[in-house]
Structures are given as structure tokens and as C-alpha cells.
Amino acid sequence: MTPHPILRSLLPLFALAPLAACASLLAGGKPDSLYRFGISTRDMTIHSTDTTAQQHAIRLARFRFAPEIEGDRILTASGDGVLYLKNARWVSPAPDLMMQAIVHRFDERAPTIRLTPAMARSSDSMQLRLAFDRFEARYDAGSLPDTPPTILVSGTAELSETAGLQPRGQRSFWVEETATANTRAAIVSAFDRAVKRYTVELVDWTVQTDMARGPAPAK
Questions:
Q1: What is the C-alpha separation between 113 and 128, in angstroms, rounded?
Q2: Angle (deg, nearest 10), helices 17-26 and 5-15
Q3: Number of domains into which the chain is organized
Q4: What is the residue-wise DSSP string for 20-62?
Q5: Using an 8 Å Cβ cutoff, are 58 and 128 in contact?
Q6: Model pTM?
Q7: Is 218 among the domain residues?
């Protein structure tokens, strides 16, 4: 099946990831382990949109990520201190992976909604704006060295009219998912579970808000 138009624009980013690891290896240094979250490799080229459903478009505005989490480093926190996970990175910047996860979740759970890119020329009447302020593995202050961290993913969503950006609904989201062990693999797996929960809640809220808004007010 043809990739979703938003996903199609991101696929070249993933093709570059193995090259980055090879360059590090050839330079004599130890390459960072690369990880992804949200959807599998297979999901990047196959999506489950029901093309028989009557769809209407919602424009997905550009994400806002807090500066410390908008790159490809994996943030950890303990008390007031923060560090990036050693020898580990996301395969692409976190906003790109989150975009893919959200698009896939809409395809999976909301076949009547078609997401369109922020810069697309269309007659979309609604726009979804997202901001993320927490995307980290948090350790309790004073915990034992082998204590697994808790993954925190939090942010806000606003569904508004494209014309004039009049809000129709706003909500804050907060998801916690404890890793099963204090290892890179377990931490990344917990990030993946947290993102899946987050995107499910986001899509379900968007569908409910969109259905409840009724007709737009007369201009």
C-alpha cells in the first residue's frame, strides 16, 4: 500500500540512519545503538486506513518539542539533574518518530479523519496543534543503581478552526510507563509503550472533540 503522505516525507530520514552508524564505525569509535518508538519498520510502509470510509481532513500543525527533547538523544532525569543515555540515540529526531506514531494511530483508530501536513494547500476547516514538554526516563532521587526508571511523556493538544484558530477543545496529556529493568533495551521498550498509550489517548480525544463540536459558527 502507498505510505501516508506525511510518512512519505519522513522515510528518507530513516534511510540515513544506518549510514551514520557506519561512519562512526569506520572512524574507529564505537557507534551508538539506534532505537525507534511508536511504530515498527513494517508500519512505515503499510498503513491500515479504510479507504471506503468517508473522510474529512484535519491539518496537523508543526509539533513543538521542548529544546532538550527535540533531538535524537534519549533524556534521563533524577531530581534536578538531567543526562542523556550513553551510547544510545533515536534513529531520527524524536519529533519525526512521534509524527509517524501519531499518523499511524490515526490511520488505525480514526478512519474517518485524514491528517494533512501543516503546509499543504487544502480547505481543512480544523487544525490540530501539539506541544510536548516531557519525554524522558525519570529515576527516583536516591534510588538504587539497578532501579528501573519511569518513562514520562506529557504535552498538550488543541483542536481549533483553521480560520482564526478559534479553539474548539484543549487537553493536557500525561503518561507514565515503568521500565521492566534498568537496561537500554528495557528503557526503550517502555518509551515505546508510553508513546502507544499517549497516541491512543490523543486520537480518541481528537475524534470525540471533533464529533462533539457540531457545525462551525456562522461568520
A1: 12
A2: 10
A3: 1
A4: HHHHHHHTTSPPPEEE--SS-TGGGT-----TTS--EEEEEPP
A5: yes
A6: 0.78
A7: no
